[in-house]
Amino acid sequence: MQTTLTDSAEVAADFLNSGGVVAFPTETVYGLGAGICHPEAIRKVFRAKGRPGDNPLIVHIYNLEQLADVAAEINGNARVLIERFFPGPLTLVLKKNPLVPDSVTAGLESVGVRCPANLVAREFLSYCSCPVAAPSANLSGLPSATSWESVYEDLNGKIDCVLRGKPSAIGLESTIVECSGSVPILLRAGAITLEQLQAVLPEIRVHVITDAEEAPKSPGLKYPHYAPKASILFCSPNESVLIEPSSAYIGLSEPPEGVSLFRICLNLEEYGRELFSFFRHCDAQGIKVIYCELPANCGLGRAIRDRLLRASGRH
Ligand code: AMP
Ligand code: MG
Fold first, then answer.
1. What's the predicted TM-score (pTM) here?
2. Could you say which ligand is closest to the alpha carbon of residue 221?
3. Which runs of E-coded beta strand occur in the chain?
């Protein structure tokens, strides 16, 4: 299959509206979209990524009018979060409208919904004739793609079109809050922080994944994720570690002595934005070990920590 590169949201939406699969930029990471009214295109998304069929897709909407086509019920907690954080990097898990195909939600009774804020994403969605189901636009298990070049590297020849935009401003996947029950639950940390959520919904709980969980609340959380080919090891500021040959470092502090490639980030925002592209860069350079500084488990640090721990295989 030929993959068309375009800078036109309208051209990209034409591909989607005729049953194609299209990668597009968002503020979190690039998404790989199919119209929820095109079941064959949904199957193509799973095939192109090599994504397990029991890992549901997030449905992207342009405006609140489309929300009724996707969700069957929007309770008070969901309304509070929509009012405060839409459009933005927040996914709500809500009771699903029967119109949404089971292949999108992996047979769950709930659906993940997000309304992105990125202007190119919004323009693209405005031309799409139905809501767009989209996981991250990377091969399953690899770090998410935060630039169109990374999408192209993973998916050239497997998808119909890439809508080129700028690198993702946040660089980490959306915060996910399960909102279909009476108590909201944070399923995945992201740029909308737990503290921001607590400010409007103090009763929110944090989901803890256990191996014994029979029906995971968010099926995707049980799969290995975000992992570069290099091994991930952790180091604390000023700690002297025995450096493996061909190693790299990313974090907020000075790198340990002896690493051949490093990225010192000015703040957590930069750390989150650079993390996945740094992983991919390290793989391209043949780096074997990436030392990472684990930020404290608060604010944006919670999301970075989560991705680092899962990339290292410890979650
Ligand atoms: P990705 O778009 O690749 O970041 O993956 C989407 C994430 O959203 C996965 O971890 C899914 O398990 C999660 N997700 C999507 N829909 C639902 C849902 N209905 N309930 C719980 N988690 C969901
Ligand atoms: Mg993903």
1. 0.96
2. 1
3. 4-6, 22-24, 31-35, 58-60, 71-73, 90-96, 110-114, 132-133, 161-163, 175-178, 185-188, 205-206, 231-235, 247-251, 261-264, 289-293
What would the pLDDT profile of 226-242 be if each residue is shown by its tens digit?
A: 889 999 999 887 777 77
Residues 101 and 59 sit within 8 Å (Cβ to Cβ): no
Domains of the chain, CATH where assigned: 4-206 (3.90.870.10), 231-312 (3.40.50.11030)
Atom of ligand 1 nearest to the CA of 223: 10
Specify the amino acid at residue 276. Answer: F
| Residue of 145, 146, 163 whose CA lies nearest to 154 | 145
User: Cα-atom radius of gyration of the chain, to the nearest Å?
Assistant: 19
Q: Which of 100, 109, 117 is nearest to 59 (CA)?
A: 100
Q: Which of 93, 180, 226 to mutate to test the pocket of ligand 1 (most atoms within 8 A of CB)?
A: 93
The per-residue pLDDT for range 40-71, each reduced to its tens digit, is: 999 999 999 999 999 999 999 999 999 999 99
Contact by Cβ (8 Å): 156, 3: yes
